[in-house]
Amino acid sequence: MMAAPANTTPGLVCAHHHLYSALARGMPAPPRTPNSLREILEQVWWRLDAALDLEMIRWSAMLGALEALEAGTTAIVDHHESPNAIEGSLSAIAEACAEVGVRVLCAYGVTDRHGRDGARRGLAENERFLRAGGRGLVGVHAAFTCEPETLAAAAGLAADLGVGVHVHVAEGPDDAGAARRLAGLARPDWLLAHGVHLADDHGLPGTILHNARSNMNNGVGYARPGRFSNPVALGSDGIGANMVEEFRLSYFKQREADVTATPETAWSWLENGWRLVPEARADRVTWSYEPMDPWHLAFTPGVRPLAIEVGGETVLRDGRPTRVDPVEIRARAAEQARRLHARL
Ligand SMILES: [Zn+2]
After folding, report:
1. 76 CA distance to ligand 1 middle (Å)
2. Which one of 13, 36, 255, 344 has the largest count of C-beta atoms within 10 Å of its C-beta?
3. What is the CA(318)–ligand 1 centre distance, in A?
4. What is the mean pLDDT of residues 58-77?
């Protein structure tokens, strides 16, 4: 096989995203300063997701997909929650990403935080979307916000549909019991986001999704993903989808804990995204820098894509998207962000 030019790579994969969080930037400060992940969830994310409607979901996904493309990321594994706009939410996200030209795997994060009926409707949205041919997984928010019956129902639905489950696992101390709660349910095609508070020998099969920057932002500690026997892939947890930057942060976080670490480990985690979205490996990104090599990229901020082909179609040319107008997307997303913030 002929070697690819040194300034090209396949399309990068963001293995854990929350596209709806694109509208959170600049939101009003919570009533009091959260001092734990639990309080950050309660006072920021669970207030924000409850205020989302389908129009906001659509434009947050358009903005998130645009930002992914502008960073050379051609595939997003999204995890979505909008308890007051559940039905149709996954289609709104999938359609927005398709318009921009970015691949997406959708999941609705099922939870019992809004009662049994909320959990039932979340499961139904996963099922509706996947049975209609949508690409994705069954989503679960986290073991600590679900009853055992809900976890079993989500696992059963995923097995019936031949897909995995995308779930937050032991991101913070509140979910430290996740390995016990998910034991016997998890399978190798599950995606386990975070794993910060998992034991080294936690016993869950599946891919660990490492979100180095988000974990720093939430002060939950270093996940040390290299200690697991599971494959590891990289996500942004909703802070954009610049995966070269997430690779870089993952490397520095690892290096801070172990000065013998090399960028090749974090780069291999980035490459594991292609196990989750194999088609992205055939996408082609031409970059502003060469060589696109881990030892160079760890120490070269600001590398950006010049051109991108997804499925053979040019979706970015001269650094600009071909299918959509970025100025319009940013304006419409800002308008929806103002509507959303006014509800908080
Ligand atoms: Zn997350």
Report:
1. 13
2. 13
3. 32
4. 98
The pLDDT confidence band at residue 282, using thresholds 50, 70 and 90, is very high
- How far, in Å, from the CA of 245 to the mean position of ligand 1? 17
Backbone φ, ψ for residue 148 (5° rounding): -55, -35
The overall pTM is greater than 0.90: yes
Q: Considering the chain, what percentage of its residues have pLDDT values greater than 90?
A: 98
Q: For residue 325, what are the contacts with CB-CB under 8 A and spacing of at least 6? A: none
CA of 105 to the centre of ligand 1 (A): 14
Kindly report, residue by residue over 292-344, the tens digit of the pLDDT: 999 999 999 999 999 999 999 999 999 999 999 999 999 999 999 999 999 99
Distance 4 CA to ligand 1 centre (A): 33
Whole-angstrom distance, CA of residue 290 vs CA of residue 262: 19
Given a contact cutoff of 8 angstroms between Cβ atoms, the answer to whether 291 and 276 are in contact is no
User: Which residue is it, tokens 């308890």?
Assistant: 83
Distance (Å) from CA 141 to ligand 1 centroid: 8
Tokens of 148: 């055992």
* Mean pLDDT score across all residues of the chain: 97
**Domain spans of the chain, in order of start:** 9-342
Going by pLDDT thresholds of 50, 70 and 90, the confidence category of residue 1 is: very low
Residue type, 12: L
Q: How far apart are the CA of 211 and the centre of ligand 1, in A?
A: 8
Q: Which residues surround ligand 1, an ion (CB under 5 A)?
A: 237
- Does domain 9-342 fall under CATH 2.60.40.10? My reply is no
CA geometry: angle at 37 spanning 181 and 238, to 5°?
A: 95
